[in-house]
Every structure is written in C-alpha cells, then in structure tokens.
Amino acid sequence: MEPAGVSSYREGVDMVTGTPRVAIVGAGMAGLCMAAKLRQAGFDDFVVHERADEVGGTWRDNTYPGLSCDVPARFYSFSFAPNPGWTRNFAPGAEIQRYFVRSSAELGLRPHIRFRSAITEAGWDGRRYRLHTADGATDHADVLIAATGILREPKTPDIPGIGTFDGAAFHSARWDHSVPLRGKKVAVIGTGSTGVQITSALAGVAAPLKLFQRTPQWILPLPRLPYSAASRAALANAPKLNRLSYRAYQTIMEQIFGKAAVEPGWQRSGVAAVCRSYLRMAIPDRRLRAKLTPPDDPMCKRLIMSAAFYPAVRRDDVDLVTAGIERIEPTGIRTTDGRLHEADVLVFATGFDAHAFLRPMELTGEDGRTLDEAWRDGPRGYRTVAVPGFPNFFTLIGPHSPIGNHSLIAIAETQADYVLRWLERMRAGEASSIVPTAEATDEFNAALRGAMPSTVWTTGCDSWYLGADGVPELWPWTPAVHRDMLAEPVPAHFRIA
Ligand code: N01
To answer: Which InterPro entries does this one have (predicted)?
Structure first.
C-alpha cells in the first residue's frame, strides 16, 4: 500500500542510515506543515494518512456562507510558503482551502498522502507502530505523528424532537449546498464565531433569519478589507516584504491577544474596552443591546472578530431569539415562552467536540495501555507534543496547545520543528525510541495548572476551552513561551533507547 514516491518499508529504524519511517495522521494544516518540514529536512520515508479525499481538514469540511478566517491572512499562512495573492486581510475559507491544496502540490507532498485512509488503530509493538485503516489495510511506522486537528467532530445538541423536523437540517461543518436559502425561513442555532459569520452572510438572503442565542458573545469590530491588485503584485515580487508582514502580524497578535488572554494588563483591559464601547455604539436600541450583552468578560470565550454581525442583527428581517429552545417540531423551533418559530432550514452552529483529539482512533502504547485509559481524567501531554507511555508518538496541536485568537499554523510550525529535532537525533543514531517521563509530564502539567488562574478563560464562563474538570485545555502562557519550551528537546525529560 505504498503511495507513489515512497520507498517500501524497512522494518524498524534502519540501522544503516538511522532514518525512521514516519506516519502522519491527517492532511489538514498541521499534517501538511509536518510533511513539508520532513521533506525540507530530507526525510523522504513518510506517509500522510488522510481519511477524506482532499487535504485541508477543517477548511475542507467547513464551507458555510460567510466562512473566513479571523486571524490575519498574512500570518495565517505557512512561514515557508507565503501567499502574496491573498485577496483580503482576513481570507475567505475557500481561498484558504485552495492555498492548502496548492501548497500540498507545490511543496511536493501529494505523492506522500494516502487519501481515504482512516487510521482506526495504532499500536506500539515495542519497536514501532502497527497501523490499521478502516478499509482493512495495515502499515508500520517507527514514528507516529497525530495531526488530527481540534475542531473536527461536529457537535449537534440533543434537543428534544430534533429528528421530527420536516425541512432541511444540518451542522455548519456539513453544509448542504443543495438547499436553497434565498427567501427561506432560516433558523441558526449558536452564536460562536461560526454562527456570527453565518448570520452576517445570510442577513438579507433568508427571510426571515432567526438566530437562537443561548449566551451572548463579545465582538471586536475587525473589518474584512480587500487587498488591491497593486499591493498583491508588489508582494509577489518582494519576498522580504512578505516575511516582514508575517512578522508584523505575528508580533501584533502575540503582543496584544497572546498577552491579553494569559495575564491581566493593558492588553486585556484595552480589548475589553473596545468590545464594550463597540457594543454601545453599534447597538443604540437598549433592549437589543441588553440581549447582546454577555454576562462574562471579553475573551473568556474565544473572542469573535466581526464588523458585520451587529449591523446584521439590527435588520428588520433578522430576529435574535433569546428565549430557550424547548423542542424542535416538524415546522420549526418551539421556545420556552411557548412561541413556535417556523423554519424551512435549520442550521446547527453548535460547535465541535474539542476534546476528542485523535479519537475515535484507538492508540495503544507501552504495556497495552490505550490513550483512552491514559486520558481517563482528561488529555494530558508533555509540553503539547508528546504523551508518557506512548513512545515515538507526537501530537501537533495536542492538549494545551496555544490556541484561541492566534494562528494555529504558527503553533503547528513550532511543534513540527520540535518533532524534527528528535527525528534528526534518530537519524544520527542517537536514539531509536523516545518517550517523555511521567515525572516531567506531571511537572509540566502542575506548572500549567498553577498558571491558569491568571488567564481570562477562568473568569467565569462556559466554553469549549474548558476540559471536563473545568480547567481550560489551553496554554496559560504566551506563544513565545511555547516557542522557548520547544526550542530544543530536554533529554532528561525523556526515556531514550
Ligand atoms: O462553536 P462554539 P463555533 N442550544 O462552540 C451554542 C473556530 N472558528 O463553531 O455559548 C442553544 O464557539 C453555544 O451556546 P453557549 C474557533 O476556534 C474559527 O462557533 O454554549 N445553543 C454557542 O453559542 C471557534 O471558537 C473561525 O451558551 C447552543 C454555539 O452554539 C470554534 O471554531 C470561524 C446549544 C457554539 O459555539 C468553534 O466555533 C469559525 C444548544 N443546545 C469557527 N449547544 C475563524 O475565523 C451549543 N449552542 C478562524
């Protein structure tokens, strides 16, 4: 089952060259990032297993109207594959997906990708991982890298009567483009980043549009602006300018949002002040403003960036429903105040299971211990990239990665560079298996928990950031600290064979 361009498998680490065979699970942003770095470093014996038939992960799966990235496009790119052609400061989803498809070809990654290959099981046999796919195929790898993404498994709420609806109903990440929307009664449930973008796009299209809000969210008014053809042409011929604009956006994101989230200071109070005054200015109607005023602090939930949402909810043909949902009926949504809100189309913008990580894939490590067993009390890893008991296994965007209002691509690059450093040691014959110690992992997790109280995520709200124990599954320090912690492997934190 070798894809073209991949040498046939040599059992275990090749003792002559020491070059390990690597399996990456997932050809989304992080998997592509890892694959590109492997190629750049001359590791050619790797396979990317992708369960779908195209790369792109969340950007492939999400195609809802209004989809765009709320991290500046010049920074939401691989640092090694700048895209001077971004058409807007915040790139539309379809454009990001085209960027990943194009990058996968231009970086020579596609021959390494095995599409429609869903890994269902991976087990460490003492020397390597044995992999099983959904279609019954098997494979081996010395090093296994999970790049399975974080917002992958759509979450549809268990609302009574959900199966009785007569119209079209779908999750935002499974948009049914065959369903007409113009002039239709559309109900959107959920006011996270997704619900806000869909509402902004469908206002004036649906008639009426009903938005069901359980908890209001703070909004930062960042307008989506086009890049002129002239500026795109200028950047196309100026690689230095591309690098400069990447660094400039990186610095702004890290210095403002990176710090605001993890430590009290002017950044946090500044973001909060902008959100509060924007709400006051954009929504003059007191009753509507009261409905839109969140009970928690800005950034406690992931901050929403939109200059289009408040104008959308002010429209006469958009109805913000704040009464609780009692049940779904064949013709619409019944709220707890007894009203029936008729709908032709029902959209669940209700988020994802952000705690699934690589599950439902079953991973077995040393002594037959599964990841489900190891993570019974919640996902725990060593510095976001490795898990005790699972040798030669790495996670990209693993537990407690610095996610939130930041470029996940930059984070994946830091982690991929770190993995590469271990692979280089293997290639140099310095190790054939490595696994973080439980002590180093516990020490890291204790420090992480100790730092959580200064973060904004613990200021009293519910969000997908929180684990089952109520502790945020995020990085409580700045992205710069993440880079520092992963700058070089610390051998003392690992058992190396
Ligand atoms: O999901 P969410 P999302 N009845 O979990 C509501 C990324 N993203 O898809 O707040 C009624 O944030 C729920 O209400 P509440 C980004 O990381 C990025 O919007 O729990 N409502 C909430 O309003 C983002 O954070 C971009 O009370 C129910 C909503 O559904 C992440 O994806 C764009 C409900 C879920 O919000 C997830 O965002 C879009 C129920 N039973 C998304 N159950 C970029 O631009 C849930 N809700 C990069």
So the answer is: FAD-bind_Monooxygenase_sf, FAD/NAD-bd_sf, Flavin_mOase-like
Decide: residue 48, CB within 10 A, 0-12 exposed, 13-18 middle, 19+ buried. Answer: buried
Q: Calculate how far, in angstroms, residue 339's C-alpha sits from the geometric centre of ligand 1.
A: 24
Residue 472: asked if its preceding bond is cis (omega within 30°), the reply is no
Going by C-alpha positions, the residue among 167, 85, 223 that lies closest to residue 342 is 167
Do 384 and 482 touch, CB atoms closer than 8 A? yes
d(CA 294, CA 298): 8
Using most ligand atoms within 8 A of CB, pick from 350, 411, 464, 473 the residue to mutate for ligand 1: 350
Prediction pTM value: 0.95
Do 339 and 373 share a domain, yes or no?
no
> Which residues pair with residue 363 across a beta bridge?
122
pLDDT confidence of 360, banded at 50, 70, 90?
confident
DSSP designation for 43: -
Residues 143 and 172 in one domain: no
**Nearest Cα residue to atom 35 of ligand 1:** 350
**What confidence tens digit (pLDDT) does each residue in 222-260 have?**
989 999 999 999 999 998 999 999 999 999 999 999 999
| Residue range of the domain that includes 304 | 168-223+272-348
Decide: 149 in ligand 1 pocket, CB within 6 A.
no
Query: Phi-psi bin for 399: left (phi > 0), alpha (psi -120 to 50), beta?
Result: beta
Task: Dump pLDDT digits (tens) for 98-140.
Answer: 999 999 999 999 999 999 999 999 999 999 999 999 999 999 9
